[in-house]
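Running log. JK asked me to keep both predictions on one page so they can be read side by side. First protein, sequence followed by its tokens:
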Amino acid sequence: MVAKKILGVDYGEARTGLAYSDALGLYAVGMGNVKGYNLEKAAEEIVKKAKEIGAELIVIGKPFNMNFTAGEKVEKVTELARIIGTLCDIPIDFYDERLTTVSAHQILQTSGVRAKNRKGVVDSLAAELILQGYMDRQKNITK
């Protein structure tokens, strides 16, 4: 299996976390956040970052409800993906991101990062968790 450069996205209304895959496609690495207070602005920033890193795939976390239903946030992420698709020809896939932000907060808390300092990194870490989960799932599918 040839590794692809992948951009992972954790969409948020104030900040959208980003992560990218390493050259071998083994690990997700956080690359910060983009600010976008509307879907169009966020989509433009995501596409810009995807092109900067030479992404061959964009994986966006889909925040399903705990009972597997799709709520308003899933609709926003679906619309975000549609807008990204109009701005570039990079394929888009989704990953069920339930609890990734909760997990990111727990990781940062366990690591000793103070609550007031988490705001700037939690979204990027959530994007790492989304992308890592996606890559791990893909490896298991191809085995």
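And the second, directly underneath as requested:
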Amino acid sequence: MPLTYNILFTIIIFLYGIVVGSFLNVLIYRIPKHENIATKRSHCMECGYQLKWYDLIPLFSYLFLRGRCRKCGARISVQYPVIEAVNGILWVLTFLKYGLSIETLLYCLLFSALLALSVIDFRTYEIPVGFNIFILVLGVVRVATDYRNWLQYLIGLVSVSLFLFAIFAISKGRGIGGGDVKLMAVTGLLLGWKLNLLGFVIGCILGSVIHIIRMRVSKEGRTLAMGPYLSLGVAISVFFGDFIVNWYMSFFTA
């Protein structure tokens, strides 16, 4: 692809990414409160001012308003531009790695779902089932578009999740959450068993290390939300998984 078109597509994908990121903020705020995500208009949390279209331009409205409500001047959470920017960056990085492909579309949507569910799980210790259903649909599309390799996706569906389900059943939900079990099942269907297993291992390592640090520094309790760490592990696996797997397997084929 010529450089000019590559830059143009990168800009377009980033803009789409921050727009979707704006919608993710709606999901993050409203789903835990069981509020309608479609019909209820966005408003200021302090004064109730219903935001106009020009107050809702991703990133730019926040910067223009200097992070404050146009009506009452109350501070707007920095979460909003951060989620928008992170989602846009993830979409751009995915495009730069996979180009214009079905993988780019599926992984961009996957990252958006993982980003939203990670924030919700971090705050509530619960992964809303709708996100897992959404990723399941992405997995079905992946199998349909790469049907020659259907077996690796089917194995991915159960390779990690069966192990986690056993922990869930034995511990009666104290060792792992049901949402985490479902998450690793649906990401396995989308990624295949190799990348999903790698993502799970990376997520567990990150979760253990980071949470121990949080326990030491901020006196965090023993209970941790695994969704954010599993999601980060999956993301790392999507971007670097093939390289890591090939590097690891080289020790057995040399």
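Observation for JK regarding the second prediction: The chain has two domains: 1-100, 127-254.
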